[in-house]
Amino acid sequence: MISILTVLIIVALSYRFPIRIGWSILIMAPVLYSMGNLILIGDAFFPLRFQQIISAVSFGLVLSAKYRFLFFRGVRKSQPVLIFLLFLVMSILYGLTELRIGFFKLALLHDFPSYIAGLIVVFCLIKTEKELQYFQVILIISAFVIAVLALVELFYSFNIAHYLCQSNASFCDIKSQHFYSTGVGSGGETVSIGIERGERYAGHAGQPNLTAILLAMFMVFIFVPLRSYTRTGYTYLLYIPLLVFCLMLLYLSQVRAAIFAFLIIFCIISLNNRKVLIVGVTILIASLLAFLFIQEFREWTLYFIQNRLSGGVFDEQRIRGLVKLSQLYVDSFPFGVGGNIGYVLDELLVSDDASAFLLYFAVSLPLGLIYLALNFMLVYDLIVRKRFVRSKNHRWMIYLSALSILLGIITQIFNENGILFYLILIYGAARASTLNIQQQKL
Q1: What's the domain count of the chain?
Q2: Residue 48 forms beta bridges with which residues?
Q3: Which of 15, 56, 141, 221 has its CA 20 to 30 A from that of 213?
Q4: Are residues 119 and 217 in the same domain?
């Protein structure tokens, strides 16, 4: 009952103070949403997670005719959003074929509403270049927060989610093994430099893959102020050390998909901005010096090469997953196995490592094609829409939004990481900032 009362209070506050509550939830969303198994208010009937909170805020916003108009205007004018809604409908229909599986219930009650809620919040609150700038500053700060949490976990073996679960079991989903089996500190072990355990070095909330990918996606926006906002030297004094710090923690995460995807996006950005290329060369030289003169950095690097890169991106575990997926395609062609990707991943493959795109194709061929089209359109639509924008700074922000989404898409080629909420959120914010401009042109 406490959870339900809390939700009702949040809805009322969102309706009464839409700007303050809406932006407050946007500030918290990048970090807290990734802690999906963390229960904020323990309740046997209705445990309250962050997904329900953002859904409650969005419901409070759409109670207002003004914000309801802004949301539906964004939906009508954005083809990727229409594809996204079709994807959700198809996911629900296929999920109905496996109602006995708890994964569909989790997606229906937690994930799907929060996806739409994220769109509602950004479409209602972000209408101008300045507001998009505020949102991207939030993402930059979120990258810093994630890096700090990972650094604390690395050196002090302290994981927030694991600590809460130890102190009170009602704070976590006891079915989730991520709190106990992965991430530095999430198992409670004493950590020196992590090599003895052979696990990822950094990952708050016990989800090292997701943490590293989000860190890489948010780091893309550090390049926004390096070209815009200000022309003073203070920009470089502030943001380049931040970029180096986040890069260090991304490297220590040892999540190959995130590292490789960021390198690809960094090369693309460098081709469009000579200053970024200079920054990259400087960081490369500093890394070589660190390898030569800092023993711990050299040990981490050698361990990463010998243990994480020895099998390449497609290591033995991924190859086994591909073989199992191939057999599923043959056995279930042409209709697929049904259910959802959680069902395919944990019940049929019995694995935690498989391409998100291949998993959706395993559920059903039409669902896989729609998901593939959705990811492509999120990037393509932003690249096209930025041509309507006159401001160079605004175009640069939209361009980096598209590249951040592309980074997330690249990581999905190698594993299923649950980043769809972030892809939709970043796209929605960038697209919403262009709606008034497009309307004026028309």
Answers
A1: 2
A2: 41
A3: 56
A4: yes
The residue range of the domain holding 30 is 1-63
Q: 119 with 435: CB under 8 angstroms?
A: no
d(CA 28, CA 41): 16
Q: Give phi and psi for 134, each to the nearest 5.
A: -60, -45
In single-letter form, the type of residue at position 160 comes to I
- Burial level of 57, CB count in 10 A (0-12/13-18/19+)? buried
Query: Could you give the CA distance from residue 249 to residue 202 in angstroms, rounded to a whole number?
Result: 7
Q: Of 63, 97, 112, at which residue does a domain stop? A: 63
Q: CA distances (Å), 95 to each of 64, 107, 339, in order?
A: 32, 9, 4
**Contact partners, residue 12, CB within 8 Å, separation at least 6:** 60
Run means of pLDDT, 10 residues per run, the chain, 442 residues: 83 91 90 72 70 88 87 88 90 70 58 84 90 92 84 67 60 47 37 39 58 88 70 63 80 80 89 77 80 74 66 59 72 70 68 75 85 94 87 89 94 81 93 72 44
Residues recorded for the chain: 442
Residues 135, 222 within the same domain: yes
Q: How far apart are CA 355 and CA 362, in angstroms?
A: 11
pTM over 0.70: yes
d(CA 425, CA 84): 12
Place of tokens 């729609």: 370
Measuring CA to CA, which residue among 145, 165, 277 is closest to residue 211?
Answer: 145
Distance (Å) of CA 86 to CA 121, 357, 373 = 20, 17, 11
How far apart are the C-alpha atoms of 80 and 70, rounded to whole Å?
17
Q: Name the packing angle between helices 256-272 and 392-412 (round to 10°).
A: 150
